């Protein structure tokens, strides 16, 4: 089932829809041109690779395209930014036909429409082996400053959105990027630091703390664990599974009411898991003992 | 030879250098933040894939990283934009070690430094097979409007930069993106339409003409053909080889002196190859006969 670049490109251009007045040159030229009149922009780029981030036997093609964009929108959420634009690079192997490639694009565009994201361009190529997606996004702050990992202060409360662990069995292809919750929170409280949990709390919490130059005391009993048909996932799974795509936030104490309001509005739980300290990063286990944080979670290793 | 994500990331962050005042948040967070105070931005994204765009036996690793960025800077040139920022996604297979991956990054960064481009972020992953690069770039117009493919007018002269054909044997890993020439031209003449020749003049000229709603008369004898050790490449090669990464421009007649000045300043030849018409796209062969344009050149086919 061979197909031509221009056929799939034509499909993408038809389906992508209108780009809005601030897109001065949209798809179909050598590059796209954007007005960028509203102050700081946030840019991110993330890959989604067959055999690394998904297995084709396990998910529909549309979910692959969806996830490739959703990972990036989660990065925007962690900066306190709203989605605006995306570019999609797609490399298609010989054993993926045009119908399947269109499904990938459909899943991408369906999430884009639901999350105020305009597909502006990208690149299409053959792949020698495996489907490969790489998405870059541009987010907006509408004059506000971005959240970073580096602003946590001693005494801040640490909160996570949603539930942790078990993502590979459950929602890691279907998660909702949390930018709407993040954007709403900005009206209510001062978020000091934020990160999205892509590699697992076990690894991503130390990243936030290192950037902030702080430590933390975390109550493992407080972690919001995913409930599966076999009961809640283990604490180890909640720390190390990765691909949660939830937000970890450092907020001044006294933010509980604001978080509760946003949680209710979006149906997204927020859970207080600990406090930022001037010491090391520690965890209190369910038996009440404190121990040093162990960096569990996902890290790519190469050449193994 | 296994290595860890953080080792290669650390190398990239050290080597990337300073980002400038308009980069509000640089590498190392969930995303980057840019000030974007100078009006329209130009964005593009292009893949460079082992087995499609390069073969590892044929080029040094540094040339692969160089080309991945250069393709994108050529797109900016075709919009009349200056380079500003880049994001690099890199997927590394098990049979590429850290030393080789660093060479790829070095080649990328060396071109970036020579072309005023700041590496701001991207993504690093394992690849199940083959080295995969995808680069997105942000260019600036400093208040000027972008060139598109769609502005050619009847009577315009068609010009190409550099020489065409034979790129796979010669310079396709070493070409210089033509944005400096493009930027200098903006001070001298009104460029009506532009495209960069990535798939070959045979295919890219009809793209510009279709976007402009015009035809053209092209003198094949005028094509600037690459000279190899065996003499000039054939006209067919000049039309169809692709990967020239030269500019095709539509300019008002009478632009010759301005082009000559820019050509001298940068040591880049510019050649007049034809004229924009209200008719079809035609070619005059070396025997003087006119014939309809044949769309030769590169197009990805999938599933073959």
Q: Give the overall average pLDDT of chain A.
A: 91
Counted by DSSP, the helix tally of chain A is 7
User: Which structural category fits the helices and strands of chain A?
Assistant: alpha+beta
**Low-confidence spans of chain A:** none
What's the assembly state of these chains? homodimer
Spatial ordering of strands, largest sheet of chain A:
9-13-8-14-10-15-16
Distance between the termini of chain A: 35 Å
State the major sheet of chain A: 7 strands, mixed
Helix content range of chain A: 25-40%
Structure in words:
The structure is a homodimer of 304-residue chains. In chain A, 28% of the residues lie in helices and 30% in strands. Chain A is α+β, with helices and mostly antiparallel strands. Chain A starts with a strand and ends with a strand. The relative contact order of chain A is 0.16. At the A-B interface, strand 1, helix 1, strand 3, strand 4 and helix 2 of A face strand 1, helix 1, strand 3, strand 4 and helix 2 of B.
Spell out the key features of this protein.
homodimer, 304 residues, alpha+beta, seven-stranded mixed beta sheet, four-stranded mixed beta sheet, 30% strand
Question: Topology of this structure?
Answer:
2 copies of one chain form a homodimer.
Chain A (H helix, E strand, L loop, with lengths): L2 E2 H12 L6 E3 L6 E3 L6 E9 L11 H18 L3 E12 L4 H17 L3 E10 L4 E9 L16 E5 L17 H8 L6 E5 L3 H12 L2 E5 L7 E2 L2 E2 L2 H6 L5 E6 L4 H11 L3 E8 L3 E4 L5 E3 L8 E2 L2
Parallel strand pairs in A: 5-6, 10-15
Antiparallel strand pairs in A: 2-3, 4-7, 5-7, 8-13, 8-14, 9-13, 10-14, 11-12, 15-16
Helix pairs in contact in A: 1-3, 2-3, 2-4, 4-7
């Amino acid at each position: 089932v061979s197909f031509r670049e221009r056929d799939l490109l034509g499909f993408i251009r038809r389906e992508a829809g209108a780009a809005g007045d601030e897109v001065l040159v949209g798809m179909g030229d050598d590059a796209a041109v954007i007005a960028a009149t509203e102050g700081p922009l946030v840019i991110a780029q993330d890959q989604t690779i067959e055999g690394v981030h998904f297995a084709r036997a396990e998910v529909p093609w549309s979910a692959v395209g969806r996830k490739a964009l959703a990972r990036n929108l989660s990065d925007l959420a962690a900066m306190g930014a709203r989605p605006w634009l995306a570019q999609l690079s797609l490399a298609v192997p010989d054993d993926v036909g045009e119908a399947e490639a269109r499904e990938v694009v459909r899943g991408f565009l369906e999430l884009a429409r639901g999350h105020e994201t305009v597909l502006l361009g990208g690149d299409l190529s053959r792949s020698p082996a495996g489907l490969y997606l790489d998405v870059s996004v541009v987010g907006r702050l509408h004059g506000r400053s971005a959240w970073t990992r580096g602003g946590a202060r001693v005494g801040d409360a640490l909160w996570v959105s949603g539930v942790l662990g078990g993502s590979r069995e459950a929602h890691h292809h279907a998660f909702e990027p949390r930018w709407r919750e993040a954007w709403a929170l900005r009206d209510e409280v001062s978020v000091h630091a934020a990160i999205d949990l892509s590699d697992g709390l076990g690894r991503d919490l130390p990243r936030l703390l290192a950037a902030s130059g702080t430590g933390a005391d975390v109550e493992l009993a407080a972690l919001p664990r995913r409930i599966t048909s076999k009961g809640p996932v283990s604490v180890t799974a909640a720390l190390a599974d990765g691909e949660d795509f939830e937000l970890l936030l450092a907020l001044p104490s006294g933010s509980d009411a604001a978080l509760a309001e946003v949680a209710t509005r979006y149906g997204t739980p927020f859970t207080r898991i600990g406090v930022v300290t001037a010491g090391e990063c520690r965890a209190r286990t369910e038996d009440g003992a404190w121990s040093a944080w162990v960096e569990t979670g996902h890290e790519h290793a190469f050449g193994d």
